[in-house]
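Note to self: the last two entries modelled the partners one at a time, which told us nothing about the interface. This time every component goes in together.
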Amino acid sequence: EAGVVQSPRYKIIEKKQPVAFWCNPISGHNTLYWYLQNLGQGPELLIRYENEEAVDDSQLPKDRFSAERLKGVDSTLKIQPAELGDSAVYLCASSPPTGSSYNEQFFGPGTRLTVL
Amino acid sequence: DAKTTQPPSMDCAEGRAANLPCNHSTISGNEYVYWYRQIHSQGPQYIIHGLKNNETNEMASLIITEDRKSSTLILPHATLRDTAVYYCIVSPYNFNKFYFGSGTKLNVKP
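The predicted structure of the combined assembly is written out below.
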């Protein structure tokens, strides 16, 4: 079974440029998460989708960040314009439908963004 | 809003048991304890979870104190591949909103 796929793995851009990250969750997983991870810290949730609906985007800086999951499968996270402080790892995770057993979150390898 | 306290780092000799502590003195009755780990350059990986009973799976054991204010993750025979950051998280069951905190960096040494 393929895991969560993210691309690109690495991205270097100049400040004020736009950037986009793509995530393909595990097949059948209706919940998708985007996390931000700064160096030396744990992941912080940016947004959570249940199918195509963003059910928790309270931590997403909406002035420059946007996300979409149009068909309830893969998702794109965009930053426009990027700032120096956006340099971090962006992680995508997915989990199966809530049921009687624990719906473990499966993480992708992340995209490391460097803003110069 | 991290609700847990973990030591920033620990060392363990290869082949020995690694005991990783976590303090969660403000845990609520409906909150579970979850452990994830993150190996360098990878995303976090689920290890184990529990409510109040001790739990064991193929990766680790979880010991939760009777008052549920602290817990210990035990890797019975640590290997070099267990070197990672270990996160202790408390959250209602299937709440889907984790606060990871900074975790414990476990260094397994030959």
